[in-house]
Amino acid sequence: MNNNSDEKRESGFTHFMARLSNRDFARLSRFIYEQCGIKMPEAKKTMLEGRLQKRLRVLGMKNFAEYIDYLFDPAENNHELVLMIDQVTTNKTDFFREPDHFAYLQEQVLPSWWEKNGTRPFMLWSAGCSTGQEPYTLAMVLSEFAASRPGFNFQILATDISTRVLEQARRAVYHEDQLAPVPIDLRRKYLLRSKNRQSGLVRIIPQLRARVRFRRLNFLENNFGLRVPLDVIFCRNVIIYFDRSTQVRLLQSFNGHLRTGAYIFMGHSETLNGLDVPLLSVAPAVYRKRG
Predict the structure, then answer these.
(1) Is there a single domain that holds both residue 172 and residue 32?
(2) How far is the C-alpha of 279 from the C-alpha of 272, rounded, in Å?
(3) Containing structural domain, residue 51
(4) Catalytic residues
(5) Is 201:174 a contact under the CB 8 Å cutoff?
(6) Could you give the CA distance from residue 117 to residue 51 in angstroms, rounded to a whole number?
(7) Residue 76's pLDDT is what?
(8) For 234, which of 158, 201, 264, 269 is 20 to 30 Å away at the CA?
(9) Please, which residues have CB within 8 angstroms of residue 119's CB and are 6 or more apart in sequence?
């Protein structure tokens, strides 16, 4: 269904609040889990109901049963699945969030890596990048490291399941209120103010934007489509949305894409305790591949 037909149907439709029955919630939550591994416990029923109201309005549908039939239709599934996931995923992020991780990267990981690897490109993956603050923070940190080490080169892949947040990340436009965690010297070097100063908007400079490649990725995809081994994965505050068996499967897949001795950074609210993965804890929420 194209955007024009969506808009026409929405413009002639009276807004209402459809209710999500227990049966329809069970069907939807099971489908979301099967398609992208995200758990939707009963406590999230009201959230799911509220966030999907827009899709019902756009499609001109009166109830969730009709929407679910449409979602499950093989002819519409891929298109609507992407739009549905955009509505239900949670995307919370900040520049320099959990700052001790960036300090550890800069002070421990990078100097050791540089001493051993020389001019080989440093490969980093921001998995679950949301609206881009994390990968752009990483690009700042790596650029600062490169400034004093001629020949140091890096590549950053940033992925998310939500096309909505990826679009925002590619634009790289933020409000100045979001910049408080960014040191003043880095703001001056890597951010451009809007010509309309009253807008309060800034944009990441082109040179830094060029360092980050964004693409959509569903963690349930086989092998993630990654072609080269990685030196670091940032996957913070992501696996908390998956059940234990999916967490183990994901971490084993992440581990398979890391070079021996490479690092994975997790959220401070996440732990690998009791999970069968060959990763060694080296700092709070920082793990290293064994071997």
Answers:
(1) no
(2) 9
(3) 3-88
(4) 51, 160
(5) yes
(6) 47
(7) 61
(8) 201
(9) 151, 152, 153
Residues 111 and 254 in one domain: yes
Q: What span, in angstroms and rounded, lies between the C-alpha atoms of 132 and 94?
A: 9
Same domain, 190 and 245: yes
Residue 93 inside a domain? The answer is: no
Return d(Cα 7, Cα 5) in angstroms, integer: 5
Asked if the model's pLDDT at residue 272 lies above 60, the reply is: yes
Q: How many domains does the chain have?
A: 2
Q: Match 């406590």 to its residue by tokens.
A: 43
Which residues lie closer than 8 Å to 5 by C-beta, 6 or more apart? none
* Pair 238, 133: CB distance under 8 Å: no
192-218 pLDDT, tens digit per residue, is: 988 887 888 999 999 999 999 999 998
Task: Mark which of 39, 55, 88 sits at the end of a domain.
Answer: 88
Handedness of CA 245, 246, 251, 254 (dihedral sign): positive
- Among 59, 88, 117, give the residue marking a domain's end: 88
Question: What is residue 77's predicted lDDT score, i.e. its pLDDT?
Answer: 58
Shared domain check, 272 and 131: yes
